[in-house]
Amino acid sequence: MKRERREALASHPLIARIGGTPLVEIRLAREAGVRLFAKLESINPGGSIKDRPVARMLLQAVADGRFAGGRRLLDSSSGNAGISYAMLGAALGIPVTLVVPGNASEERLARIAAHGAELILTDPLEGYDFALREAKRLAETYPDRYWYCDQYSNPENWRAHHETTGREILEQLAREGLGPPDAFVAGVGTGGTVTGVGRRLKEARPDTYVAVVIPETFPGVEGLKPLGHPGDIVPAILDEALIDRASPLPWTMRWRCAAGLPGKVSSLVPPPAPTCTGRCNSPPLAASAPSSPCSTTPGSATSPPACGNGPYSPDAPGKRPAIPAVRSQG
Ligand SMILES: Cc1ncc(COP(=O)(O)O)c(C=O)c1O
């Protein structure tokens, strides 16, 4: 019965458009003798990969009767999952409340509001984990008002990637005449992507190398959360045993890479973000990261190093990630 209900909802035209994204080759890498592909998740209806897990978590929750008595869906988000919750909630008639750090991008906040979701903004200076703790506090305080989806602990999150993203990657590579990949690289927000895809790929080929990039600050890269500092919350669903390498990503790298890539891969990347040139060009980031490397890196004022040549130095290949942090409760 539950399964039938879920399947009926899954045929909703909006939900049916989620996933099945193209796997695009980055030709640039061929010069180095590597075949490198990117999954174009931005073409999902909500504009990001988060549509996949959010759709699955919502369908399961509806099938389980979680919204009986007019209970609202509650979760925290750095922005993209929030768009998915708001968009799908509006389509399925589920009232949605989101706890979002106040420094999420204006465009994300505007889109969430446009779908009619209730927004609770937390102090940007408190960081992303504060929003997460606030959502948990609200859920515990008002159990009759909210059903807490908790994307950091909800197993439907990683299952969505196991059953769709990971499967699609294998099928798309097979259509290119290729087997399971040598390596897979992802960012970590909730850990759903790397856990679900990593599991699927390692089932197909146990020695697939799984790497993650971890931003040093929030919001260093939209959607990704810092994990490397003592006290950072580590998502309960993140399966660290799958990860062969974790590399820190200083937020200045984001600007350098985004500025350098478009000329070379013009069809894939949006217009260049401002390059860091000694003074930060981005007020929101500068404001939220007062001690950022941007203002302290000597020599960056006149000639910012090319992508990969800056102060960034990834840890040694093969090194296991050291994540001295607090694990979220399921
Ligand atoms: C655009 C984007 N990519 C990747 C991620 C990280 O995905 P996950 O939550 O599965 O770790 C997020 C998380 O919000 C995101 O918004």
Q: Care to describe what's here?
A:
This protein is of the alpha/beta class. The chain folds into two domains: 19-43 and 162-259, Rossmann fold, CATH 3.40.50; 51-151 and 290-328, 3-Layer(aba) Sandwich (Rossmann fold). It has ten helices and eleven strands. The protein has helices spanning 2-10, 13-16, 51-63, 80-92, 106-114, 128-141, 155-175, 192-204, 251-260, 283-288; strands at residues 23-25, 37-39, 72-76, 96-101, 118-122, 146-148, 183-187, 209-215, 233-234, 245-249, 326-327. Strands 5-4-3-6 form a four-stranded parallel β-sheet, with helices on both faces. A three-stranded parallel β-sheet has the order 7-8-10. A two-stranded antiparallel ribbon has the order 1-2. The radius of gyration is 20 Å and the shape is globular. Residues 265-330 have low confidence and may be disordered. The structure holds pyridoxal-5'-phosphate (PLP).
What is the gist of this entry?
It contains 10 helices and 11 strands. By secondary structure, it is of the alpha/beta class.
Which properties best describe this structure?
3-stranded parallel beta sheet; 14% strand; 330 residues; 2 domains; disordered C terminus; binds pyridoxal-5'-phosphate; alpha/beta; Rossmann fold; 4-stranded parallel beta sheet
